[in-house]
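Worked example (supplementary).
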Amino acid sequence: DSGVTQTPKHLITATGQRVTLRCSPRSGDLSVYWYQQSLDQGLQFLIQYYNGEERAKGNILERFSAQQFPDLHSELNLSSLELGDSALYFCASSIRDTPNTEAFFGQGTRLTVV
Amino acid sequence: AQSVTQLGSHVSVSEGALVLLRCNYSSSVPPYLFWYVQYPNQGLQLLLKYTSAATLVKGINGFEAEFKKSETSFHLTKPSAHMSDAAEYFCAVSGGGTSYGKLTFGQGTILTVHP
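After joint prediction of all chains, the assembly is encoded as:
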């Protein structure tokens, strides 16, 4: 158990809908990262927050947004969902936002868009 | 920009044999390198990391990796494979500029261990 909690574990929704994925980082970790894992794109970095502020952005679609709350949990919002958004979404956390800091991953949320 | 190339999307070994998973990186700044393992239906677990302290890095479960700057490589090895090592392995790089710890992953290598 990494200490990073993601909910829900599975999500099935229809095209055009909006969903929210939730992540609770390890106790004491200030940095939260979101990654998308799909068969065709592999593991792709989406966005990072550190202590409530956006730190870095990857190839995140405009239909996707995220935030980190004062209690440090984070939410990833996906809207106007398309079939191609079906993927495994991982949250990771680390104590710092420096490149040499290891990140701990949650078990992921498997999103299926039908 | 940083990138990672994992040579071989599938590697198959016999139980007790040497495991060698290849990773080459590209980075314009001194890199930090990581190996993660993903078991079916699970998240990624850190095996080991290179942060410039030592070129030979030992990790969990008997794995180790050697950083070779001249070859831009960070290959993962284990002297004797066990059935429980069957999983997907990812090499990742971080570092420089405004990376702030984000990881760039390779495409992954699926390790199969035969009895």
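Two points are worth noting when inspecting this output. The two ends of chain A are 31 Å apart (CA to CA). Chain A is about 0% helix and 55% strand.
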